[in-house]
Design goal:
Blueprint (H helix, E strand, L loop, with lengths): L8 H9 L3 H20 L5 H20 L9 H20 L3 H5 L7 H24 L4 H10 L4 H8 L4 H22 L5
């Protein structure tokens, strides 16, 4: 896999200062999934997520360009904070859940949100590794059922099981193997 020129936050900032469009393009791809997840989980649409992320990146970009950026955290934390604030402001303007915005106790702190997101990403990574280790036909069977949402009859036909009960039994065994691989590799951060 080809490494990016922009492995670090500092490299991204320097790239933007040098007017390297690749730095900005990389930044757009890097943290959008986190912002999209937040907005989609909080009454937003995909288009609204794109708009908010665009606004957040523009704020970040302009602060770099006018040398007013005082970054005391990672870029993703900064962007999350800016985008979260922009989204809550937009919700208030639209009247959606405006009563909850003032009640800050109901929202997790920014750091908790980011830590939770990072932990979820780590779990997804461990699960992807476990799925890669499980082998066939378990991998395909679990992907067909849980990801492609195929029904048991389709899976029975595809894999040549005698009936759906046999397919369900095999799915259960595969799931147990996957769980065993996952929990052997995953250690929660304390």
């Amino acid at each position: 896999m080809k490494k990016s020129l922009y492995e670090t936050d500092e490299a991204i900032i320097q790239g933007i200062r040098r007017n390297d469009d690749r730095a900005l393009a990389y930044l757009y791809k890097l943290h959008f999934p986190m912002i999209s997840h937040f907005i989609l989980s909080n009454s937003g649409t995909d288009d609204e997520a794109k708009d908010i992320y665009q606004e957040g990146v523009i704020v970040f970009y302009e602060k770099i360009k006018d040398n007013s950026l005082e970054l005391s955290c990672q870029i993703k934390t900064y962007l999350y904070s800016v985008c979260r604030r922009l989204w809550l402001k937009r919700l208030a303007e639209k009247g959606r859940f405006a009563n909850r915005i003032d009640d800050s106790e109901e929202f997790q702190t920014l750091e908790e949100d980011v830590q939770k997101h990072e932990e979820n990403e780590r779990q997804f990574g461990v699960m992807a590794d476990a799925l890669g280790q499980i082998g066939e036909p378990c991998r395909s069977l679990l992907e067909d059922y849980y990801i492609r949402m195929q029904n048991m009859q389709d899976i029975t036909d595809k894999f040549g099981y005698t009936n759906t009960d046999t397919a369900k039994n095999q799915k259960y065994k595969c799931l147990q193997r996957l769980k065993k691989l996952f929990f052997a590799a995953y250690k929660p951060e304390v």
